[in-house]
Amino acid sequence: MITKFVGGGFGCKGSAWSHVLIAALAAKQLGRPVKIALTRPQMFGMVGGRPLTRQKISAAATSEAG
Q: What is the pLDDT of residues 11-59, one digit of tens each?
């Protein structure tokens, strides 16, 4: 199984990313709220410092009824 996107944001360390700062500056300039919208792949790309990991999972089953 290969999964490209796993996790719920744990480990981001709470640092402010550049797009958050830009949105705050834009909101201040416009005088109204600004919404940041990232695609799922963008959430795991260069907008954060998430290390690459590799997991190996094994699964087995039998045809016997439990």
A: 555 566 778 888 899 999 999 999 988 887 777 665 455 567 788 888 8
The rounded distance, in Å, linking the Cα atoms of 64 and 27 is: 61
**Within its chain, how far is the Cα of 27 from the centroid?**
23
What is 15-40 written as a DSSP string? PPPHHHHHHHHHHHHHTS-------H
Q: Which residues, 6+ apart, have CB-to-CB distance to 16 below 8 Å?
A: none
Q: Is the pTM value of this prediction over 0.90?
A: no
Structure tokens at 21: 């700062």
HSE (CB half, 13 Å, CA atoms) of 31? 0
